[in-house]
Write a structure and sequence with these properties.
alpha+beta, 5-stranded antiparallel β-sheet, 3 helices, binds ligand K1U, binds zinc ion
């Protein structure tokens, strides 16, 4: 007789962390494809690893292309320090947005330590599928609205720097390139 034993939460293997791609990796500029029913097994395995990678970074959102998977999957949790509110969205699309805009400082795990103010609709309604393929909708304002738009942009190869003036974008990208070069040199010396 075989007995299936539940693994206690404390000893359950953690989902593997995934390396996060950094600008100018060309994968970050590609369009991710829609998830089909045939992809769901892969997607259900990917989502826990995306959450683990996002929390470890730490971040409040992550899109599958940032971990090299060109599938339309994002995860968000804009209150990771308080009560966790993890949300995984498959094939998300903005189906309504307010005319009212707000400016908020954004960061990106693919542009480490770079921040800039970005203007976006202050409210959005997003249609998506959950990890079981069921259709869902979420309405968001505040940081969640910003984060959802930022992550959906990643699925279309768009980065927050694309909303900046060419001057601000170049300053930020040059600063990033210098910081990454310095970091590589420091690692080489060790
Ligand atoms: O997509 C990403 O690269 C994640 C990004 C999401 C995001 C941040 C801010 C505005 C819009 C979207 C990040 O999570 S950057 C890190 C960050 O903002 C953060 C990290 C820890 C605690 C709080 C915020
Ligand atoms: Zn980002």
């Amino acid at each position: 007789m075989s007995v299936t034993q539940a693994i206690p939460e404390t000893t359950a293997p953690a989902a593997p962390l995934l390396p996060i791609l950094v600008v100018p990796d060309p994968v970050l500029r590609k369009h991710a494809r829609a998830v089909t029913p045939a992809d769901y097994d892969e997607v259900r395995a990917l989502i826990p690893s995306m959450f683990a990678t996002m929390y470890a970074a730490p971040g409040i959102g992550l899109a599958a292309p940032q971990v090299g998977r060109l599938l339309r999957v994002i995860v968000v949790d804009v209150a990771p320090d308080k009560v966790p509110a993890p949300l995984a969205l498959v094939n998300p699309e903005v189906i309504a947005a307010s005319e009212d805009k707000c400016s908020r400082e954004e960061g990106c795990l693919s542009l480490p330590d770079q921040y800039a103010e970005v203007v976006r609709p202050s409210w959005v309604k997003v249609r998506y599928q959950d990890e079981n393929g069921a259709k869902q909708e979420v309405e968001a304002d505040g940081l969640l609205a910003t984060c959802l738009q930022h992550e959906i942009d990643h699925l279309n190869g768009v980065q927050f720097v694309d909303y900046l003036s060419p001057l601000k974008r170049n300053i930020l990208l040059r600063k990033l390139a210098k910081e990454l070069k310095d970091q590589k040199e420091r690692r080489g010396r060790k």
